[in-house]
Structures are given as structure tokens and as C-alpha cells.
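It is worth pausing here to work through a concrete case rather than discussing structure prediction in the abstract. The textbook approach is simple: state the sequence, then state the predicted structure, then interpret. We follow exactly that order.
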Amino acid sequence: MANISRAAAGFYTVLFFLLGVVGILFSLHGYLGFFSLSDIIEFSWSVGVAIFLMPGVFYLSWLAFCIFLKKPQQKMNSLVSKYLIFFTVFGVIFSFLFSIYIETTLKKQGYLICPDKVSWRSPNEYVRDIKLCQ
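Step two, the predicted structure:
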């Protein structure tokens, strides 16, 4: 295992933790928008999968925190890693299928997809009225 300075371990601890929090908030915003049927809903499979990736990110944050505390060499627990990988694969499949479900459900309820996307990776923006597109 490579020697990592305490400063670098502390930096990665904070970075992974903040990345996890932002990812969860970003994903929950999409899910809550759908379940509450708000006027503007931003959702795509990438938004949906973010919540399934965050346990792995928090686990990496925990490992970096243990290195920061100068505990003996930290190794990934193979059982935890196996379940995190399973959860991530399940999340990717679930998010892809759920995004298809969301698109068909919202179209049936009269939502429109905004035509202008910044990037192909951007989530779809579903609106009740085309005037709400920004």
C-alpha cells in the first residue's frame, strides 16, 4: 500500500464525504420531484443511480479517515466490498429501468420534455407547461 500523508488523507476524507452528501442531495431532488409531481422535474438514470453509488463513496471516506487517524494499514473488507458492488450494480439496473418508467408515467400525465439540453449527460427536464423551460 502506498504511503499517504496525513494531509492528503484528511483532504480525501473531506472530499469523499462532501461528494457523497452532494450526490445524495442531487439524487433525492430528482426522486422527490417525481413523487411530489412538481411543475418542474429533473430526472435521468444518472440522477437516479447517484444515490446507489454513495454508500461506496462514504466507505472510501471512512477508509481515508482511518488513514488520517494513523491507524495501522487499512484494507478494504472483502465482504463489505462485495455488498457495495452488488448494491451498485443493482442500482445501475434499477435506475435505468426506473428512468424509463418515470418518462412514460410523466408523458401520460401530460408533462413535456424541455427541448434545450446543455449536454447529452444532462438530466431530462420535465415540465407541465412549455413556458417553464428555461
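Step three, interpretation. Residues 6-36 form the longest helix (31 residues). Residues 6-132 form one domain.
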